[in-house]
């Protein structure tokens, strides 16, 4: 402990290092790892005939080992400590005749200009740049200027560093502005991990003649697991990339020591594109009694199923880990932009990386099982990809669900973990590698859907609840033959209005959709079509309702809002806040018939905001019911204008059974999951 400085500033003091090396003696002091850990990177940039300068050499064995393995022999070592220079001269003796040790300050070197091909710095910059005070920065500028002066054009400044943000930022900005090529290598191992949890980096600054004007900066990073550098667009992006790797190292260190009370999420990116390839969640289960075989497992989520409750929510993943019976489970979601070579390929790719997330006490050679639902990685086929000025990038994809069912989904990539619309496909899609039975069958065009849409099936639980809400209408039982006027705001894939149109044969459905691209998607990919009883109006829902309120009040039996918010900064993703402001809700009430029902899909994670929305709804609609969708954030709100229309659960159940029975007509497909009475049993009056 007596060897440590009183404060960080002492690291830049020659007096401190003189005292340090006199007290420590000849025992080597290896900051940031020993030669074997740096050998691979040094071999790339140090040639046998190079003249190498080591600044702030200390008593490290780095230059000695470089000499001994034949990497380079013409090495000059300098340091400000007379004690360490004497130690190193004595230690090296006549064994390395071409290597020398000189007492010299690197801020004022005696060497001529362009004298070296390589300047090597192991921790010296970190020791000097302890803060961002003006005097410290001036000292570093002088250090960089001297290094630049003694290096030849084409020479390399190799700086081994922990890459603290202010150190890296200073080095990158200085040399990139001088026109040098800047490349950062992450060293495969950080030496004594008890001393340094953070990874070690090597800055490689290659000197070029400065070109007048604004020459493009060349900034690159080489992660430890790959040789090919990744180009960065700015110094800020390069610093951020290093910071990400430091955070990952800290996370791995934390996970290796103690159980994690909260779920940890991280992305592993593709080496070539830099895009996320895997999303990992680390889930610890304290209730699982640990044994040799149940400490750790990896669960591969089948493609396309990452949005399901079991895999896409904290509670679901916790239940998955507990039921799997492992103390720590890492769930792995696969990204749609990536290609995967089956379960074996994924296991080979992830095996080394996931072991860095192993729980404390796991034996080094422990076999870790890879699990999945159904034993495969699932099927995902992107049928269509495009971008909308209003909704941003989106994809239409077909995925294999649980069992042999296939589904078509619309995903907005700005919120890629949320299924915007979903429909079940009638025909089974062929599995990869499966042979066709009929060779004469015409191959479908890639632009055409491979199977018909099952229009009788509502995939979304909240859509089932919204249909069940028609039982709240006044008058006689809402049988399918009863004339209805329905307004739906928000088209999506069109499954909700399409179901109402097909099953309520006298319903007239008006749909308002702000994004014309969604009408194209619904028509081409989800089997939607307009007709005499169903029309789409391309308009802002707010403007459309206000216009109707002025022109034709009291015209709808049911109004349904299923519209998402484009603003992800608000704690309510459905509907946009303007749709639940009191003046607008009063307009909604104006166009609703006296015994009609206003049905709203509310998705709000902000508890305070949710209470505010409910309070506003009560001010406008005296009768308010709510149905929470199990396993989801969604809550379906049923609003009516008159409290006299209040119905008890028994009456609602009877009406729901009557409606369900009427909808189950011979020859008409009906899914057994449409238990409308069950859907309304959980309804509550607010």
From TrEMBL:
- Looking at the Swiss-Prot or TrEMBL record, what is one Pfam family this protein matches? Spermine_synth
Residue stretches of biased makeup (Basic residues): 434-444
Is Methyltransferase set as a keyword in this record?
A: yes
Write down any Gene Ontology CC term: cytoplasm
| UniProt entry keywords in alphabetical sequence | Methyltransferase, Multifunctional enzyme, Transferase
- Span-the-membrane segments of this chain are none
One GO BP annotation is:
methylation
A GO MF term: methyltransferase activity
Keyword check for Methyltransferase: yes
Annotated region (Disordered) at 430-450
Q: Where is the Methyltransferase domain?
A: 50-171
Q: Which PANTHER family match?
A: EEF1A LYSINE AND N-TERMINAL METHYLTRANSFERASE, SAM-DEPENDENT METHYLTRANSFERASE SUPERFAMILY PROTEIN
Concerning its family, UniProt says: Belongs to the methyltransferase superfamily.
Q: What protein am I looking at?
A: eEF1A lysine and N-terminal methyltransferase
Species: Rhinopomastus cyanomelas (Common scimitarbill)
Q: What is the lineage of its organism?
A: Eukaryota, Metazoa, Chordata, Craniata, Vertebrata
